[in-house]
Design a protein that fits this description.
Strand order of the largest sheet of chain A: 4-11-10-9-8-5-6-7
Oligomer: homodimer
Radius of gyration of chain A: 23 Å
Low-confidence stretches of chain A: none
CATH class of the largest domain in chain A: Alpha Beta
Largest interface: A-B, 56 and 56 residues
Distance between the termini of chain A: 48 Å
Structural class of chain A: alpha/beta
Strand content of chain A: 5-15%
Number of helices of chain A: 15
Mean pLDDT of chain A: 91
Shape of chain A: globular
Largest sheet of chain A: 8 strands, mixed
CATH topology of the largest domain in chain A: Aspartate Aminotransferase, domain 2
Bound molecules: pyridoxal-5'-phosphate
Chain lengths: ~475, ~475
């Protein structure tokens, strides 16, 4: 389903060509005339294509010579390295809690002027004013709201709008199949509790979201870390090999779209193959779709759940990154485990409060939601690319980085010999907080990496902080 | 600490005498003159005592003869039976989930005009208007609220007001020792996860809150049901005996004040003994203090935690019954497990949203909160006593009932031979929903009981429904 305007489709086409190196920095972009002929489009569409790519910093106009692919500092950076296609670690169950908590506690205790450790954005990215107004409206429309029990399973209007939106990611859900949760994190807890027992092995991406490792540890489950590529996500070969080699795998958890911390998007063929393979093996597949809404392209990314035929895929998602970091709205559609998940949710925390659901249902049903998402995408992309440019400009030689097409962070491979633990501490002393690679695995494998948030406008203050951080990395090398 | 006015203290004194049968229905209350001499109080205080008891329906004025203890229909009811002081059941782990879910599902599927199955009150009991206004104020004061991350561990003002309020129940907590949760139910989950593992044995009250049995089952822990008295709460003898007889007990969960479903309040001496005994045995003691605020008397009930010397008591509570059924605000103070509980909360659901915390902190810091609690107590007491009167009037002979001094329900022992399962189904067919005794234990021991909510005003419609329910019980006998 392509609902994008024609000029956007063409712009994407050339953008991919540039990203793939088919058109190189400094090369001339096909002229407007060529574009008109080649794609049978009007002058105005051809011009829009070039202007759009110019506005995104991909092309530059040279007076009287036309458009050229802009040389980018980051073009000088090597992409982050691919994982070694070796066997994953045997399932481990170590004190990730302790490690993460220590890092978080030290981060919180320090006085920090620049916090790049988080994975959510600045308030300015979010429609706080209309959400506030929607909440006030909901309070006025439901004056007895706080005196009434909370609606079981979630507010019906909110569940309905979630189900409707899921269509765009090619899922076919009814509102009845959507259970509202306290963010994606509660959804993940419920999914894991529904499909596995303490002691069971769960395959996860490596590097992967540290919060998931904490959940697994707290539930007494064992994380089996599967190598994951910055380009294509979890390695299906490694996963299949692991399934032959180790204990029974009870479940797989993946972030198929804009993985944290890598930003990888799984190719469609990988998504389909993963769903089929899990179904064949009888392994529960849990998808965490927290970041889809931050993708550069307007065309929605597909969910794993869209390939689900027998209820074996559990879809978990959240509005925490894309609409409102100040709310705790997530949801789960748990396929054949859905009834069990409903029960566990009731037992674990009872249904969510109604107010923010009412406010968001109101907002999401209006055109304002799509306008917000468009603005969010553009702002995040700009911030992400500015940050990447700055890193390319000032980080020491040997730094590697793949700029993803969405998400709230950049995953940076530091020059050989740098330890993220050292950089974390040294940066804190400079008033800068980052997320050390160590947090994203039970192993020490990612100590050479750091994750930086691109959730903030690229101000002069941020630029200065980044230069200071570059010095810290240089000294750590 | 008695901060009650003198006339209230004296009124309580005589109320207890009446409840204990020292002054019997129809007997003359000591005259105002006698009260003045006996207690060395003024005429106006003595009059206040009598008028207060009259307003509570305990005394009646007879023209020119003074005050008399009012004959009460329910005086004809025997108190609910005491538990047999036998050994508790061996720890069980059966499908309470399934049983409770079936009952809940059937209740929800039926068309019901009178729902007496719940344990919360009608919206009219709660200050919905000022809470709504406080929420709107909070939104205006924090226009970026939904765009900012949620405050870790809870909103500071809210944690501070909870800590301050805890003083009245003789607990000495700092705001740092209060973690905000999704209601008491999340607090209980966290407490149990912190102190015990799957497979561990947890001692609980029997009959007891069915939600706790669900939590235990979902966590794979085994409930050891300890006989519990409608007057004095959990049987300490039975608990001590159980500890000698069965597996190691990892924790004890009790509702010391206004237990659900019995309404029992543990005597102070029992509270102290239980805390000391658990400390000596190294058994974690989890207290669920959900209902204290509904006590008839203004003087606050003491918390088990007020006897805690070594951090062995975990205090869990909630505003769901006493302030706002439409919010999900609870908290936990977990003594020596507090750091672990903080981590588990983060891992399970992240911190609560800020808005309702801000609204409630605002409301609770004002005098309006105490005014609300006073009104709630009086309204609930009236509703409870009217319901009890009606049951005494129209339920079949052999019905037994102890009217508790607070709480949101009545626990009714039906005449021999009645089954709560039968009564539940038959009542549903009449459009009336009740909570069958079967829900409150993993055994069938309480099938002879039902719990009715006293959260609703005693209207004519309710009176009619109750008469129809009485007929249902009669037919089931
Ligand atoms: C991949 C992933 N899943 C889930 C979460 C948590 O989501 P929520 O805030 O909705 O609970 C995060 C937050 O960082 C995340 O990165
Ligand atoms: C004894 C007891 N504890 C806890 C709860 C649940 O409390 P909350 O709604 O605050 O999660 C209830 C509700 O019925 C209850 O009766």
């Amino acid at each position: 389903m392509h609902t994008e305007p024609l000029y956007r489709q063409l712009a994407s086409h050339y953008l991919h060509a540039i990203q793939a190196g088919t058109l190189r920095p400094g090369e001339r972009m096909p002229s407007v005339r060529v574009l008109m002929q080649r794609h049978d489009v009007s002058l105005s569409t051809a011009l829009q294509v070039c202007r759009h790519l110019e506005s995104r910093g991909v092309l530059e106009a040279r007076p009287r010579s036309g458009y050229f692919v802009r040389p980018q500092a980051r073009a000088g950076l090597a992409p982050a390295s691919e994982p070694v296609a070796a066997l994953p670690d045997p399932a481990r169950y170590v004190g990730i809690h302790q490690r993460v908590s220590d890092i978080v506690a030290r981060g919180q205790a320090a006085t920090v002027h620049t916090n790049l450790s988080g994975a959510s954005g600045a308030p300015g990215l979010y429609p706080t004013e209309p959400l506030k107004n929607a909440a006030i409206r909901a309070l006025r429309q439901h004056p007895d709201l706080f005196g009434q029990g909370v609606p079981t399973l979630g507010v019906p209007e909110f569940r309905a709008v979630i189900a409707k939106r899921a269509l765009a990611a090619r899922m076919n859900l009814s509102a009845d199949e959507v259970l509202i949760t306290q963010g994606c994190i509660e959804a993940l807890n419920l999914a894991l509790r529904a499909v596995a027992q303490p002691g069971d092995v769960i395959a996860v991406e490596s590097p992967g979201f540290y919060g998931l490792l904490q959940v697994l540890e707290s539930l007494g489950m064992r994380a089996l870390e599967i190598p994951t590529s910055p380009q294509t996500g979890i390695s299906l070969e490694a996963l299949e090999l692991a399934a032959q080699t180790y204990d029974r795998i009870a479940g797989v958890v993946v972030v198929p779209n804009l993985q944290n911390p890598l930003g990888a998007v799984m190719p469609e063929a990988h998504k389909e193959r993963l769903v089929r393979w899990c179904a064949a093996q009888g392994i529960a597949l849990i998808e965490d779709d927290t970041y889809s809404g931050t993708h550069n392209d307007e065309a929605p990314l597909s969910a794993l759940k869209s390939w689900d035929r027998d209820g074996g895929v559990i879809h978990c998602a959240s509005l925490h990154k894309t609409l409102a970091p100040g709310m705790r709205l997530g949801w789960i559609s748990a396929g054949r485990w859905h009834a069990r998940v409903e029960m566990l949710k009731f037992t674990q925390s009872r249904p969510n409060e109604a107010l923010s659901q009412l406010a968001v249902a109101d907002f999401m049903a209006s055109g304002a939601y799509d306008r917000h998402l468009r603005r969010l995408r553009v702002m995040l992309r700009d911030q992400r690319e500015q940050l990447a440019e700055a890193i390319a400009t000032c980080f020491p030689a040997g730094t590697r980085l793949s700029v993803p097409n969405g998400g709230l962070g950049l995953w940076i491979e530091m020059p050989q010999g740098c330890s993220s633990a050292t950089v974390f501490d040294a940066a804190l002393r400079e008033g800068i907080r980052i997320a050390p690679g160590l947090m994203f695995s039970n192993s020490n494998r990612f100590d050479g990496f750091i994750r930086l948030s691109c959730g903030f406008p690229y101000t002069r203050a941020l630029d200065q902080a980044l230069r200071r951080l570059a010095d810290v990395v240089r000294r750590a090398g």
